[in-house]
Design a protein that fits this description.
Elements (H helix, E strand, L loop, with lengths): L14 H4 L3 E5 L8 E2 L18 E6 L14 E3 L25 E7 L17 E9 L19 E10 L7 E4 L9 E3 L3 H8 L17 E8 L1
Antiparallel strand pairs: 1-2, 1-3, 3-4, 5-6, 6-9, 7-8, 7-10
Length: about 220
């Protein structure tokens, strides 16, 4: 029965409540800047390009066809990607806002323009690595970075080492210590320094006796 239905009569189904459902998107997990999306009363919604960097939720008014009162307090679910926001942490929906699939990721060595993401290029010690996030703008060259298209400052990111170390095989990939979040990654000179600098994160990298040689670089990122 609907929340607030005092007479206790069971409804045969929740069809009346479903009809009140209105999909919404928000600019943050607190429900800021709500916009109605999709078809009211529909129990499904297909993500659209305009939803990028937004949190998806739904507004529902529990309604009964037999109870008194017939309408209960409106429910606002502001982020269906999390249990706290009205979804479920155990489902296959990634936590956070809708990913903008038009954002490109570049990881490069300082002083170079070569994208190292997904390559087997060996990492160098005593070297700085940088992140560039960019998105095509109207009037630019499609699929190619043009001046003015960088959006790195709009995102938080964390570094990841991927793969395994190359020589001894004692290192395993994982998240880099959070002290490196949102900043350039500097590979130290010695393996011991690398172990101290990079280990410690939950689900983090293990730097073995052979250091970072053999690892590739990647990032996780999300809109601020």
């Amino acid at each position: 029965r609907a929340s607030g239905d005092k007479d206790g009569d069971p409804d045969t189904d929740n069809a009346a409540t479903k009809l009140t459902g209105q999909w919404r998107r928000y600019s943050d997990q607190n429900g800021s800047n709500p916009e109605e999306i999709g078809t009211k009363g529909s129990d499904t919604y297909e993500i659209q390009a305009g939803d990028a960097d937004h949190y998806i939720g739904i507004k529902i008014t529990p309604t009964t066809t037999t109870g008194d009162p017939a309408v209960a307090t409106e429910l606002l679910l502001k982020d269906l990607s999390t249990d706290a926001g009205g979804g479920a942490d155990g489902d296959d929906i990634p936590e956070g806002p809708v990913v903008d699939e038009n954002v490109h990721v570049v990881i490069y060595e300082s002083g170079s323009t070569t994208n190292l993401l997904g390559t087997s290029t060996p990492l160098k010690t005593n070297t700085t690595y940088k992140v560039l996030l960019w998105k095509d703008k109207e009037g630019g060259t499609a699929g190619k970075y043009d001046t003015g298209e960088e959006v790195t400052s709009q995102y938080d990111y964390r570094w990841k080492f991927v793969g395994t170390s190359a020589i001894a095989g004692t290192g395993t990939g994982g998240i880099v210590n959070e002290s490196w979040n949102d900043k350039d990654l500097v590979i130290p000179v010695t393996n011991a320094e690398a172990k101290t600098a990079f280990e410690g994160a939950d689900g983090g990298v293990t730097v073995g006796t052979d250091g970072v040689q053999g690892f590739g670089l990647s990032i996780d990122y999300r809109r601020k």
